[in-house]
Amino acid sequence: MKNSRMDPMNPNRLFSLSSTCGAEGRGEEVPISSDFVTRFMWRGFPLAGFCSAPVLACLLLMSVLGQGWSQTPVTPPARKARILLVTGDDHPAHHWKETAPVLQAALEKDRRLEVFVAQDPAFLDSAAIDRYDLILLHFKNWQTNGPGDKARENLRRFVHNGKGLALVHFACGAWQGEWPEFSDLAGRVYDPALRHHDPYGPFRVEIVQPEHPIVRGMEDFDTQDELYTCLTGGHPIQVVAQAKSKVDGKYYPMAFVSQYGEGRTFQCVLGHDVKAMGVPAVQELYRRGCAWAAGLDPLPHSK
């Protein structure tokens, strides 16, 4: 009786050379899959030499039939989203060097979100932005022009072709008076002719589209921030959170979504400073909104 040997052309293919195998003593070689070997060559028992051809055939049949139930289902790895957080310039009252790290840490509580920071809005000139799934604008070019024509076209194409855009607080004022198309990408933009905001202080944020994936399960919450009243634009938007001004009694959008071409936009005007950005519900709103705009299903809680 001979031992087993490996097929030299395929190490994962094992042949039984037992002279007792095979009808009429032909001793033919029977190929055995590596999966079969894994499941039946246990406890040190060699496959060859202890079974006849009929037994071996039965075991092979069991191996094939058992494929559907004997293997542990393989769960594909969770899809991740690469986020480019663009910052580096803002109104003097907005300390981006303090708020950007807080925002980054809040987003990365969702382990699917990988955040990369560019501390110069001019990075939008680069074709490297195509490596990302979402561009998160956390800048307002102050007393200087915004990134030029190449950056604008890069960003427009990026969103139009199906990737995501998100805006933080005063990013609604980027390219003010320079780029009319930005109003459609952003959904709403800053209008200096309007009253800017209520005085910094406490107010309540109300969830207005409770079935939208971004805010599903969220409850109204209190924050201390600037209640923006300065947004304008005609592009269709869907408001998911709002707040009532203590100055004029009107409701204003605090977070909303829109579509540009094939891409999604999420904008939230909350987060004036570290304290405002540190409110758990505000962080949850940004985390879910960025996931949604990047094409992921928002998680109800960070995992």
Overview of the molecule:
The chain folds into 2 domains: 5-70, no CATH class; 81-293, 3-Layer(aba) Sandwich (Rossmann fold), CATH 3.40.50.880. The model is unreliable at 1-50 (pLDDT under 50). The longest helix is centred in the last third of the chain and has 14 residues, at 280-293. Strands 5-4-6-7-14-13-12-9-10 form a 9-stranded mixed beta sheet. It has 303 residues and is of the alpha/beta class. It is 23% helix and 24% strand.
- What series of H and E elements makes up the topology? EEEHHHEHEEHEHEEEEEEEHH
| CATH-level-2 architecture of the largest domain | 3-Layer(aba) Sandwich
Strand content: 15-25%
Uncertain residue ranges: 1-50
**What is the general shape?**
globular
Number of domains: 2
Q: Span from first to last CA?
A: 58 Å
| Major sheet summary line | 9 strands, mixed
Radius of gyration: 30 Å
Helix content: 10-25%
Name of the level-1 CATH class of the largest domain: Alpha Beta
CATH H-level homologous superfamily name of the largest domain = Class I glutamine amidotransferase (GATase) domain
Number of strands: 14
Overall structural class, as computed from helix and strand content, comes to: alpha/beta
How are the strands ordered across the major sheet?
Answer: 5-4-6-7-14-13-12-9-10
